[in-house]
Design brief:
heterodimer; A: mainly alpha; B: mainly alpha; 2 domains; 3-stranded antiparallel sheet; 5 helices
């Protein structure tokens, strides 16, 4: 069993800084979710957590476990890959659902419909 | 060879993914990875996807580095918009005309635009080749259109062709 106290000092500081920075980025994204005013604006800030926040935490994990097990640990990269591929799909679906609803119900923040559009 | 392994690159990626996930290079896991890669590529072939011709590895690397840099920059831009509310910030939709018609190119552009904080791909109109993009900090519509076309679409056209 490997334990976090086995981590050498330099690695502990580096991992802690990366983790905190990633958590802070994700927190700002979540605060943005609360503070934005319209539905479409709200979709933007959470992407902070799924991009830079995720990358920093993944990096912290790679460094932590590579040092602890004294062999490269890279499977965390897959988290980044899967998140990057899947979250935009969810965001697009949400935005399209909102757009559809506003077009059907009228009003709201929907974009001006062009002449050519039906 | 083609019939046995219709998508060699996909098979290789799946094999590597399997080994990374199980974190083991034991013969048993290698065999399992190979079986998964083989079956999944057979399933993929049954779907008959549109063939991809990847050109210009240099363009791929350039696009990747531009996207990473832009995502990091946008993270800071959106974070500052969240923390320090700016008066007069306008968010809104832009109609982005596109030249690229390759569906993989479009899919990648959609992921790039949505994954970048501050812009969101909403709806693609295939008949008129325009995309509805929502922008969090909309200053100048034409500037946004030029930016996306120059930075991403030009490279995607190089990689996938029209």
């Amino acid at each position: 069993m490997i334990q976090a106290p086995d981590l050498p000092g330099w690695a502990a500081v580096l991992v802690a800084l990366l983790l905190l920075a990633g958590a802070l980025t994700t927190l700002i994204g979540s605060i943005g979710l609360l503070r934005m005013e319209s539905f479409y604006e709200r979709v933007h800030p959470p992407t902070l957590g799924s991009t830079l926040g995720m990358a920093l935490i993944v990096l912290a994990s790679i460094i932590c476990f590579s040092v602890l097990r004294s062999r490269p640990s890279a499977h965390e990269v897959l988290i980044g890959l899967f998140l990057t591929v899947t979250t935009p799909v969810a965001f697009m679906l949400l935005a399209r659902a909102a757009l559809y609803r506003e077009r059907v119900e009228g009003g709201g923040y929907s974009p001006p419909v062009d002449e050519g559009e039906k | 060879m083609r019939r046995l392994l219709p998508h060699p690159l996909l098979a290789l990626l799946l094999f590597v993914t399997w080994l990374l996930l199980t974190q083991s290079f034991s013969p048993g896991q290698m065999l399992m990875g190979a079986i998964v890669a083989f079956l999944a590529t057979q399933a993929m072939a049954a779907l008959k996807p549109e063939p991809v011709k990847l050109r210009q590895p240099a363009a791929i690397a350039k696009l990747l580095s531009i996207v990473v840099a832009d995502i990091i920059r946008s993270n800071f831009a959106v974070a500052s918009l969240v923390l320090f509310r700016r008066r007069g910030r306008v968010s809104g939709f832009i109609h982005l005309p596109l030249e690229i018609t390759n569906s993989y190119g479009l899919a990648i552009l959609a992921v790039i635009i949505t994954a970048t904080p501050g812009s969101l791909w909403v709806e693609f109109d295939r008949h008129r080749s325009t995309v509805l993009v929502h922008v969090l900090d909309l200053v100048d519509e034409d500037q946004w259109i030029a930016l996306i076309k120059r930075r991403y679409e030009a490279l995607l056209l190089e990689i996938f062709g029209q």
